[in-house]
Write a structure and sequence with these properties.
CATH superfamily: Winged helix-like DNA-binding domain superfamily/Winged helix DNA-binding domain
Number of domains: 1
Largest sheet: 2 strands, antiparallel
Shape: globular
Number of helices: 5
Strand content: 5-15%
Helix content: 55-70%
CATH architecture: Orthogonal Bundle
Radius of gyration: 15 Å
Number of strands: 2
């Protein structure tokens, strides 16, 4: 694809993905779900956030079309909405760490 063939849809899709990655909790959720599906309470505990924060961030990721909710009895678990997302996240992480391995200090980017 060339610059001339990038459509408004392409830009919107990448902007949506960028928005999802723009919050550390949402990024943590996506990275966790690339490993395995999870329940919101387990994800909240693993990421050290409240269940309300987790609920809000999962709603955002659902709105972006990146995760999907799967009802199971009285509970609901979450997974990545598309199998291409896990390898895409892995590759994006490799690229970012390759380009600037010392960029992040664990608290956020210092770039």
């Amino acid at each position: 694809m060339t610059f001339a063939t990038a459509t408004l849809t392409h830009r919107a899709a990448l902007s949506r993905f960028g928005h999802a990655l723009g919050d550390p909790t949402r990024t943590g959720i996506l990275l966790a779900l690339r490993e395995a599906p999870g329940f919101p309470s387990d994800l909240a505990d693993a990421l050290g956030v409240s269940r309300q924060v987790m609920s809000n961030q999962l709603a955002c990721l659902r709105g972006c079309g990146l995760v999907e909710a799967v009802p199971e009895g009285r509970r609901t678990w979450y997974r990545l909405a598309d199998p291409h997302l896990a390898p895409a996240l892995d590759e994006l992480l490799r690229v970012v760490l390759h380009v600037e391995p010392d960029c992040c200090d664990g608290e956020g980017c210092t770039c």
